[in-house]
Structures are given as C-alpha cells and as structure tokens.
Write a structure and sequence with these properties.
The complex is a heterodimer of chains A (248) and B (268). Chain A is of the alpha/beta class and 248 residues long. Helix content of chain A is 34%, strand content 26%. Chain A has 8 helices and 10 strands. Chain B is 74% helix and 0% strand. The chains are: A alpha/beta (248), B mainly alpha (268).
Amino acid sequence: MMDLLLRVENLRVDFNDHMVISDISFDLNDMTCLMVAGPSGSGKSTLLKAINRLVEPTDGSVYLRDDDVRQLSVPALRARIVYVPQSAALGPVPVRENLQLGLAFRGISITEDTIQSLLAEVRLPPAYLPRNTRTLSGGEQYRLSLAMALSMEPEILLLDEPTAHLDPELTGHIAEMISERIQRGLSAIIVSHDMMLFRRLGRKFIFLDGGQIVKRGESQDMEEDADHEALWRELRALSSYSQPQSDT
Amino acid sequence: MNGNHYYEISSLSLAIGFLLLVIPSGFSRLLRLGIIRDLIWGAIRAAVQLMIVGALLGWVLSRREPYIPLGLLFLMLLSAGINAQRRQKFPYPWLWLKATGVIVTATILPLVFILIFVVRADPWYSPKLLIPLAGMVMGNSMSAVVLGLDRFYAGFKDRWALIEGRLALGASRYQACLPVVRGAARASLLPIINTMMIIGIVHLPGMIVGQITAGGDPNQAARYQLMIMYAIATANALATFGVVFLGISRFMTKHHQIRYDMVREDIT
C-alpha cells in the first residue's frame, strides 16, 4: 500500500472577503495523480496555489507527509511541491539560464547532464539552450516551464492546464512523461479538462464548482462507468471551450 | 563689486532680472499655452521662498549652537519625506514616514562621510557646509525614492506573473523580485550617471556657478562639485536600496506571497 503524501483538510481561501474555495478535503498518496476539473472561476488554480502557499489559506490545513505546511519554510516547501502556471511567465533570458534558475535559488548548480536530460524529457532540442525565451512558441515556453519545475526533483507537481498550449501529439507525450515520472516516485495534481490526460492519468479526480468539490471519484475507466457519465459529459463540454492550440 | 570679489544684486537689479520673464510670457501668449499665470505665480513663489531661505540661512550661519543647523536639517528631511509621498503615483498610509527613514539614511551617511573625511569640517556640523550640501544630496535622494518606488510599483504590477513563477520555484520574495528591482535601480541611478558623463562639458552645475560667482577659486569649486556628485550617486544607490525594501514589503507578505489584491482584481 502506498504511503499518504499530502492531506488537504477543509481548505478555504477568501479573497477580498469573497469565498474562492471552501471546505476542500482530499488525500494524495505517493506515486499517484489527482485530476481536478471544473468550470472557469471554480477555484481550481487557487486550490493549487493554496497547497504550496502561493496563496495563503484563510482556513483549513495542508499536511505534507505528517508536517503541517505552515511549519515548513515557504521556499523549502515550494521546492518540494512545485507549481507550474498555465501560462509560462519566463524572464527574457536564454533557455539555459531559465533551466538553472530553480536550483540556483537554493544555491545549487545544475549539471550539464541534467540539462540535456530535462530538454529531452520535454522534447526541446539542445540547440534551444542559447535562445532567448521570447523566441519560443507558447507551447515551447510551457514545456520549458515544466522542465524548470522538474529540475527541482519535486515530490509533488502542481500543473495548471498543462496541455492548453499543446497539440494532440505533444499532449500525448506530456501525459506519457508524467506517467513515467509518477512510476519513478513523483505525485501530481493536475488541473485539466483534457480528455486525453483524463484517460491516461485520471483514475482519481475531483470536480469543483463554485469553489467546492461537487463530485469526486476513482475509476479504472470513467468512460465505461455509469456513475461518472454526467461528469464525462461535462468534461467534454469544458474541453470544447479549451481546444488545444497548434504548437509549431 | 564688494571686498569679497563678487557682484552684489540689489533689489532693483533683481526686479530688472524679473523682466526676462516677458519673453516666455510672450511665447505663451503667442502659442496660447495658457501658462502665463502659472509662470508668473511660479516666479513670485520662487522669489518669496528663496528670500525667506536666504534670510533664514543668514541667521543659521551666524549661530554657533549645533542644534540650530541640525534642527533645520531635521525639518528639511521631514519635508523631503512628505514630498516623496505627495509625488507618489501609488501612495499608501505612513509612506511618508518610511520614505523619510530612507531619505535620512541615504542622505546622512555620504554627507557625514564627506564632512568628516573629505572636507574635514570643524565642527563637522558647520552650517555653512552642512545645510547646502545636505540640501543637494537630499533633493536627489528624494527624487531617487520617488522614481525608484514608481518604477518598482509599475514593474511589479506589470510583471507579477513572472514573480509568481519565480516564487513557485522556491525563490524568496527578494530573489523573486530581482528582475523588477533591477529595473527600478537602473531608473534611479541612470540620471546621476548621465549627469556625471556630461558634467563640465555641456553642463555647469549650480554649485560651481555659485562658488565662482561668489568669488571662489574655480579649481576648488570643481573639487566640491565632484565630491557632491559622488555623494549623490551614493545617496541614490542607498535610497533605491531602501525603497526596494519598502516596495517588496508593500506588495508581498513575509511568507513570500504576492498580495494579489494589489496587482489584480480577479483570482481563480
């Protein structure tokens, strides 16, 4: 049986006295993935940010292993639980400099082997290393962000709409890459409406609406599962609003 | 010309000098700029303010008690802090006090260094040196505070997503803000660097002009000016360093979180 890695208890975040998320509770075990879906404005991104304290929860608790995350140093916590935003926000510097950034914040140098293997993992050519990030497409920038997050060797990866900028082929590759990482010890919480990601990774899921969990479940095959038929229909509807862009 | 080899300006001569403003007033009328009233009002205000300062300085310079120049210095610093708040595009409560703290630190350190180690004034608070030098350094510190804060705030609002990305990778709030800090620091320091580049070539600053017209040695006047430029550069750097801390503490929590309510209206 896999160990409990993350426990979220009654999490609530208010913003300017308005509730954004409320009463969110779930567990995440080692080497597992939790998919999070829900309509726009349902609090999905805020949930991810509250887990590693990019946003301060108003109430509730998050435990990493047995430690209350409020007892941990915030930068150290964020090195263990890394959040990757939906739109990559990269400094206008060469790709290599960006890849060095995460470890440099902790005073650690990244090795050349690690850089090459990270690039291969996210399918960026080594020739990109001296290129300024401004010259990369949206999809390439997102994959670079993913590589930067992976360079930290996190315990948990928080991905916000990871395939929004990717074409179906790259989406399949990213799903496979995450799946391999999970087999090697990573855990992930992924906000997505992407049907392919759900099929590949979404055995455990929560569905948010109005800042609260309105459905949760675990299924070997959601499409075949009558209990989740309504959810699957909603996902299809949400997916139609977020068609993947071409990544050239 | 008097015994100290400088030409005195009488009240009548000053009034004749005022006539020069006929030319900009004429331009304003010709081009319908609508600024004649402001121009005249500005000229009168400047005259009254400088006459009062001249009379006040005359009294201060004639006294030997240390608390008089130091008291005046305190008032000048307080006024600079309040003005820094007034000139801010993004003012907030108690900024004047924090800005005053930054301006005091940025001004006093290079000023005292100059008075004690360079000029070797005796006493070090000699009002003849302390007040004019402090005025020049402080004015620049105040501008550096205003410019630095403006640039930092604008940069932060513009680039909060980049800062969030750096925080997400485990950066401290200081590490995360570095790209914005660099922009603000450059904006604060570039004016003095540019001034140093052209000084003496296309621009003779007030201190040199003042000393020479007052019968001083041009060589010494140039040395004083050089010293004051170095002090201003140091003060600007210290002021920028200070306002960056103000900006970071304003826009971020001690838990290395962006105060999203200050940079965006939505959050999901």
